[in-house]
C-alpha cells in the first residue's frame, strides 16, 4: 500500500508540472417522405441488409441489392433516422476511396465511413439529440460534397450549400420563412458618408408619421439579409404581435473594422443619421446592437466602449476573447441588457468563454438571458433562434436568466463531443462503445477533462473498475485534491495539496464499485459510492480548475455516463 501511495504522489507531482447513450430501441423509423417505411425498425433492417450483403459472393449481385435498397427508400429520404440514431449512406464512384463525414456534430473534424464489404456503399451510424438540427458534408478524397441521397440543404456562410439533418423532435417556429398573407416591410439602401447601409421600415411606416420606433443595428447585416432571411422574421413577428414594429439597419460586414474605435465611430455616425432621417425613439434603451460570431464580439466591445449610446445587446454564437470578457469587469454599465445564445455543438473553448461571460454578467448584476440550442453555430441556428432574442430584448421582461450553470451530461452513446484530452498520449488507450467510454492505462499517466473549469460542482458517474490497479480523480487549481480508490486494498484515500493524507476509509462492502458521486459545495466534499454516503471532507471549492483521471499501468475503468454541473 505504501508503494502505491508513493507512486500516486509522484504521479501527482508530474501532473502538477503540466499546464494546468446505449438505448435498446424498439421504436419505429423516421423517414421524411416515405410513409411506407414508418413502421420499420430501421436499425434492425439495416443490420439484416448488411448480413445479406455479406452472404452474397457476386459483386454485381451485391450492387444490385444496394440499388434496390436506395430505390425502396428513395433518394431524398436519407439519412435513415430512428429516435436519436442516424445512419448515413454514401454510394462511391469507382475511383472514390476515402470517404469521411464532417459536421457540426464533430466540430467539423473527420469521421471515417465504413465500407460495406467490398461494395460501393459506405455507411456511418451516429447518435444525436432527438430535438437537434445540424449541417454536414462528406469529404470524398479531400473534396467536400453534399449528401446526394439527401435533398434537405441549407445555405452556410463558410461552405456554401450544406446538407442538413432535422431530427424528429426538433421544434421550429419558422419566423424566417416567407408568408404571402402578411404585410411586408420595405428595404431601402442609403449612403451614409462612404458607407452603404440597408434600412428596413415596417409595412405601415408611412401611415404612422408621428410614431417612434425602436431600432435594431445588425453588424454583418448583409449576411443577415442573405442567409438569415431576417426581414421575414421581422415581418412575421410583428404580424403575430410577438414584437413591436421596429426599424432595422444593416451594416455590411466589409465596412466593419476589427478595430473597436473605428467601428464605434462608424456606428455613432450611422445612429445620428438614422435618428435624424427616420421616426426613431432616440433613446439608448430603444437601440439594439446585434451580431453573430466575430461580429457578436465586435457588438459587445462597441456597447461597452460607447458609454450609453446603445444599451441592448443580442449576440449569436459569440466568439469572445478574454479581453472582451474583461471589459465587463473593467467598464461596468449596469443599464445594459444582454441576450446571447449559441449551439450545443460549439467547440469547447467557445463554450468556456461564453460561460465566463455569463458568470460575469451574473456577478455584476446585469439583466441578461442566455440559451443553448441543440444546433450548430451557423445560419441554420441563427435565423431560427434570433426570434427568442428579439422577443426578450424588445420586451419589458427582466426575469429568467436561462443558462446559469455549466453542465456536462454525457452517456457516451454518440461520437460527440469528446470531453477528454487524450491526443498524442501514447500511455492511454480509449474505446468509446455503445453507451460507454473505456480508458486503459498502458503506463502511468492522466486524462484531463479538456478545457472545463469547475469550482462549486456536482460530479456523478456510473463506472466500473475493470482491474485491481488503483485509479484516482484529481481536482486541481491553486489547491489540489486527489481522491484515490484502491479496489485491491479496498481503501479510499484523499490527499491534500502537499500530498498529506486528509482522509482514508475501508470500503470493503462497496466493492465492486458501480458508481461514484461527488458534491462540492460550501467548502465541503460529499462522497457517495454505490449511492451510499461515505464521507464529508473539508474542501476548497473556490480554487478548483481542472478535473483529471489518474492511473498506473494496468488501470482500466469504464464510464457508463458522466454528469458534471457547476453552478454560477
From TrEMBL:
Residues 1-19 form the signal peptide. It comes from the Bacteria. Pfam families: Esterase. The keyword Signal applies. Keywords: Signal. PROSITE patterns: PROKAR_LIPOPROTEIN. InterPro entries: AB_hydrolase_fold (IPR029058), Esterase-like (IPR000801), Ig-like_fold (IPR013783), Ig_E-set (IPR014756), Mycobacterial_A85_antigen (IPR050583). Gene3D superfamilies: alpha/beta hydrolase (3.40.50.1820), Immunoglobulins (2.60.40.10). This is Enterochelin esterase. The lineage of its organism: Bacteria, Bacillati, Bacillota, Clostridia, Halanaerobiales.
